[in-house]
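Collaborator request, handled under Task 6.
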Amino acid sequence: MKRNLVFPLIGVCALVLTSLACQTLLGGGSNLPQAGSAPADTILFQDDFSDSNSGWDAVRVDEGITDYENGAYRIFVNMQNNDVWANPGLSFTDVHIAVDATKIGGPDDNDFGVICRYEDADNFYFFIISSDGFYGIGKVSGGEQSLLGMDGMGQSDAIFQGAATNHIEAECKGSQLTLWANGTQLFSTEDSEFSSGDVGLIAGTFDTVGTDISFDNFIVTRP
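Structure tokens returned to the collaborator:
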């Protein structure tokens, strides 16, 4: 069974990663059309990563990469039991986030997904799946991470395994937090600690380093 993602936090700020944010994480049907087809008046932010000056981190160090690459956004994690994330530097309250995420390297025992209501490196919600078919919703609060409404990561056949592309959606609406993969609702839970903040992308490792995820068609809409 997938581990329940409880590891001690390891901040990467002590490493000279400048804007590369990193720490260890807890290692139905969609109501949103595919990215790019949402009504214009509902779109809060969207990025197909064709413009490398659209506001995301561009960092490449031995420990990991968060950077634009080949018309997408790449997160590579070369540290054991760690997650790396990137944010565009925005702030929203209620959001519905969608992105296409492709595994381009590394182990299937990984995690990747999206972030909402990011206040700082110690306080935010995350929505993750893995290339071996697991998922979870959780938060980092005061630097301590936990899954929400679940004892361990769940498993679903709706998640495409291996070197595949998964369409991930997450919604933060009031206290309700919901995760979808490929049009199937995976889980929904409630938490009211964070009410607003940045959005973002996240990917990480467990025992094996080398998680390598390419993200594209990132879109944030009003739920």
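The cover message to the collaborator said: "Residues 131 and 161 are 5 Å apart (CA to CA). Residues 21-27+40-221 form a domain with the Jelly Rolls fold (CATH 2.60.120.560). Please let us know whether this matches your experimental observations."
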